[in-house]
Amino acid sequence: MRVASSNGLRFRLALIVALWAIPGLTWAQQAHFELDVRELRVGETAALRLVLTGGVADAMPVLPASDQLRFAVQRPQRERVTLNFQTTRITTYNWSITAIQAGTAAIGPARLQVGGKTLRVRPVTLEIHEPDPGDAGPNLLVAALEPTPEDLAAGQPVPLWQGQALVYRFSFSHRDVLYDARWTQPDYAGLEPIPGVEQDQKEYALERDGHATTVHDVLVPLVASEVGDWEIAPSVIKAQFPVERSRRRRSNDPFEQFFGGGVFPETRAEVLASNPVTVRIDPLPSSGRPDDFGGWVGSFQVRAELGETRVRAGDSVTLTVTVRGDGILNGLRLPPLPESESLRAYDDEPEVQGGLAGGRYQSRAVLRRALVPMAEGTVQVPSVELVWFDPAQGRYVDWVSPALELEVSPGEGGEAVVMDFTSPEAETHEAVRSLGEDILPIHTDVQVHDQRFSPWQPLPLFLLLLPGVALLGQVVTDLRAQGGQRSRRVRAVRGQLDRLPTERVARLAALEAAFREASGLALSCPPAGVSPDRLLEGLPEPLGTSAAELYARLERARYGGGTGELEQAVADLVARLLKGVR
Predict the structure, then answer these.
(1) Concatenated DSSP letters for 339-391?
(2) For 425-429, what is the mean pLDDT?
(3) Which of 151, 163, 229, 155 minimizes the C-alpha distance to 391?
(4) Cβ(173)–Cβ(208) below 8 Å
(5) Strand pairing of 200-208 and 228-232?
(6) Model confidence pLDDT, tens digit, residues 408-418
(7) Distance CA 103, CA 203 (A)
(8) Which terminal residue of the chain, N or C, has fewer Cβ atoms less than 10 Å from its own Cβ?
(9) Beta pairing class for 211-224 and 191-193
(10) Of the segments 26-40, 355-369, 451-465, which one has the largest average pLDDT value?
(11) How are beta strands 44-53 and 117-121 bridged, if at all?
(12) Are the C-beta atoms of 234 and 189 separated by less than 8 Å?
């Protein structure tokens, strides 16, 4: 999709200004480890890199000895990068690491001496597994789920909780040159793709049993949606490999030599199937479930902080709550603030992100609330309470923010001074006096023209009214355009409900999109700005309550269950919302 040229020009100008505004920008010295994989089997070899930015080490870094890994030093690589007329050096130190013992191996920490300065490199961990007897072939296809308990017995289903996020991973490894490969995805029984999160792919090289092996990993983010025992069928790959020349039949035919001798090489097809994966999805426990549980499942870390602790009465300060973890955070909002005469609150739209990182699903939500103290003195900020279900602990977690206080000083005040020029004291002009002088005779045959400017003359009047008429015409044109645009949006929403997809996730997404679009039209706001609070505040009752309840039902439906019962409710409410749209 092309971007408008004006936007691109503005972006380039802003970039140029920013680059010229920071001529002193330099790169700080830092170092970190990089691994292509986080899991190996005994006997496999992978690449390890230590990347140093902003210099060169005084000596080759030395890694701590390990009983589980064998290190072989490779040639380092150096390159220079220039940004804003500043050049920095990036040095990459390379090793090949071979797994020799099963377990969790730690690589590092390491210390680098760079120009007399010591840099500490944080360690990384690597999981080493025993060799699999089934990994004898040159080409393999293996499927697994993350997370999978380490002590799970072979053949046992992977235990999951309804609403838990996970990753389906299949690895295709081959020794031969690969010309083409086509993957057939399995039916993720009991699971659904996480909306809005794309699959991830990566390719890396290993040494397995003394042979160079190329590995292709495909990671599919999923959510456990339906309770029960399920089996994910094997993934299937149809791969094309070249036929070795020694196996080809030689021919004296020049045409066959040309078309079969390398221009269009012969290939052999090989169909590989992965292992099936079984899962057991349990419902969230009803015992101990808090009344305000919103359906969020995962392991999360939460932090709450105030932008500042000293503020003047009437000024605002921002409370920021950051949530990080491995669960889906879509729809997460701060609970309402209790009504108070001394403190007012205004919530921003949450910033929610989710995606794959390090082979796992990771999410982050930033919730901001503007607080406006109305009274002086020490004001207690009410605690924020969030509830979720932690699959790792198998229980509900009730998180309460620590006590926060605001020291509120008096706000700025002052009296406005208004000057009254109509009072007798303000009278400054001199009254007209009769001088009693002779008056010249009046000649009636002389025509006298009024030289004073009058706005009511035709030409000045036209010039005065012209901007207003033009502005009025523009307003009318804009209103007509907005009306036409709203009419098109109304027709689009109704058409979307008439043409719902058949696949469940796509159908649910279409229902939610139609509901948000109709709500946005009724509230005169973008669909992304629709929230339960805005529905309750902006719509008359009982329409506002019905819309907020349907919003919550659509959020819960993401974790499983049919959409049929929602379709009629969405259609009815959309019709009520669009009824008042003009």
Answers:
(1) P-SSEEEEEPPPEEEEEEETTEEEEEEEEEEEEEE-SSEEEEEPPPEEEEEET
(2) 44
(3) 163
(4) yes
(5) unpaired
(6) 998 765 333 33
(7) 24
(8) N
(9) antiparallel
(10) 355-369
(11) unpaired
(12) no
Question: CA-CA distance, 579 to 563, in Å (whole number)?
Answer: 24
* pLDDT exceeds 90 at position 433: no
pLDDT category at 19 given cuts 50, 70, 90 is very low
Q: If pLDDT is split at 50, 70 and 90, which confidence band does 100 have?
A: confident
CATH topology of domain 140-282: Immunoglobulin-like (2.60.40)
What does the alpha-carbon distance between residue 130 and residue 44 come to, in Å, rounded to a whole number?
Answer: 10
pLDDT reported for residue 319: 94
300-409 to CATH, choices 2.40.50, 2.40.128, 2.60.40, 1.10.1060: 2.60.40
Which residues fall within 8 angstroms of residue 348, CB to CB, at 6 or more apart?
367, 368, 369, 370
The model carries a pTM of 0.55
Tokens of 153: 């017995």
How far is residue 200's CA from residue 220's CA, in Å, rounded to a whole number? 7
**Token pair in block for residue 503:** 């696949």
List C-alpha distances in Å: 157 to 148, 149, 335. 10, 10, 37
Overall average pLDDT of the 94-100 stretch: 83
Beta carbons of 222 and 192 less than 8 angstroms apart: yes
The residue among 297, 352, 294 whose CA lies nearest residue 147 is 297
SS3 255: helix
Determine the 3-state secondary structure of 246 from DSSP: helix
Specify the domain boundaries for CATH 2.60.40.680 within the chain: 24-129
Instruction: Read off φ and ψ for residue 316, nearest 5 degrees.
Output: -110, 150
Cα–Cα distances in Å, from 98 out to 66, 125, 489, 496? 11, 14, 60, 56
**Tokens, residue 282:** 């349990």
Q: Give the count of beta carbons closer than 10 Å to the beta carbon of residue 363.
A: 24
Percent of the chain with pLDDT over 90: 22
d(CA 306, CA 38) in angstroms, rounded, equals 38
DSSP 3-state assignment of 161? strand
pLDDT at 473 (0 to 100): 65
pLDDT at 154 > cutoff 90: no
Collapsing DSSP to helix, strand or coil, 517 comes out as helix
Q: Please give the Cα distance from 253 to 333 (Å, whole number).
A: 74
Quote the pLDDT of residue 545: 87
Give first-to-last CA distance, the chain, whole Å: 32
Side-by-side strand order, sheet with 180-184: 180-184, 236-242, 267-273
Alpha-carbon radius of gyration of the chain: 36
CATH code of 24-129, in short, is 2.60.40.680
